[in-house]
Amino acid sequence: MSIRDEAGSEEQLAELREALRRAQRNEHKAKAKIEELVQAVYQAASDALRAQPPVKVLPPKKDIRKGKAEVALIHATDWQLGKRTVSYGIDTLEKRMDRFTDKVMELTLIQRAHHPVKECTLMFGGDMVEGLGIFPGQQYEVEAHLYEQLFEASRIMQKMVLSFAGFFEKVSVVSEFGNHGRLGRRGDMPYGDNIDRIAYRITAEKLAAQKNVTWQQSSDWYQVVEIGNYRALLVHGDEIKSFGGNTPAFGILRKVNQWASGVLDGKWTDAYMGHFHTPMTLTAANGGRIFITGSPESGNEYAREFMAATGHPSQRLHFVDPVKGRVTAEYNVWL
């Protein structure tokens, strides 16, 4: 190699090194901006929380009956708060969640006529907000931006938790986030930075003085729900991919069977998910069941066009025997 060739190679190498340094600096700046944005959202939520007085209700009188007690298991999911259709909006969601809360308590009173039901486990399953930019054309079905979605979702969740705290002696809240609450496009930000999680955190901190309410939440994409000897898996459902928009029953079975084979820690029998907006029950290979819960939304044009399907507004209520570790009664609560 000539001296000229060597000089040219050194010059190219220097240019490549400088290009790499520029790329690294730009990546660091972008990452810093993302972290600053997430921190700003958390800080705004924290400031708003401190500006409001704590809320508290009195728990009910203790049920001193000696009968075999059961636990109410409530699955509230896929609210899509912020979506606007011809028959759905924030006001509609709130009315339907009030109706759902009332129906849970009515059905619990029927159960209590036979045996004590002192406690409930409330599962928030994700997609509590509509988010922005999840699918093409979504901006035409959004009535509120993320800020309003965040605080309205927290307000309605707070009202539901407080209603149950005044009706049940103990309320255990288990929360999982969905794909609609993610910040930015898929992969732009860490998976756990999610509007659903922020709404859960605001609600939990707002209700910190409520001594008969506990919260289970984490950055994991699944939660294991424990009610005595009953153990169940809670996921949102977007972990299972659908083809052509159809509810992928085979894909759900295959994925849950794989999870139950030991892929996920902890022994559990049943699995709960939302995401598909259509209530369904499947039987897994381990003998447990997979419960897919509906959504309170209605009039979804995207679902009609892309999936050629529509669902009736609903949520789910079960009653669980904590000793035998099984579901004793199941309700699709139509709204």
For the biggest β-sheet, the strand order reads 4-3-2-1-10-11
- Mean pLDDT metric: 85
Radius of gyration: 23 Å
Give the domain tally.
2
Please give the structural blueprint.
Blueprint: H1 3-50, E1 71-76, H2 90-112, E2 119-124, H3 146-165, E3 170-175, H4 195-206, E4 213-216, E5 222-227, E6 230-235, H5 249-263, E7 270-273, E8 280-283, E9 289-292, H6 301-307, E10 314-321, E11 326-334
Parallel strand pairs: 1-2, 2-3, 3-4, 6-7, 7-9
Antiparallel strand pairs: 1-10, 5-6, 8-9, 10-11
Helix pairs in contact: 1-4, 2-3, 3-4
Would you write up a description of this structure?
With 335 residues, this protein is α/β, with parallel strands linked by helices. The chain has two domains: 1-51; 56-334, 4-Layer Sandwich (Purple Acid Phosphatase, chain A, domain 2), CATH 3.60.21. The protein has helices spanning 3-50, 90-112, 146-165, 195-206, 249-263, 301-307, and strands at 71-76, 119-124, 170-175, 213-216, 222-227, 230-235, 270-273, 280-283, 289-292, 314-321, 326-334. It is globular.
Brief account:
By secondary structure, the chain is an alpha/beta fold. The protein has helices at residues 3-50, 90-112, 146-165, 195-206, 249-263, 301-307, and strands spanning 71-76, 119-124, 170-175, 213-216, 222-227, 230-235, 270-273, 280-283, 289-292, 314-321, 326-334. The protein has 6 helices and 11 strands.
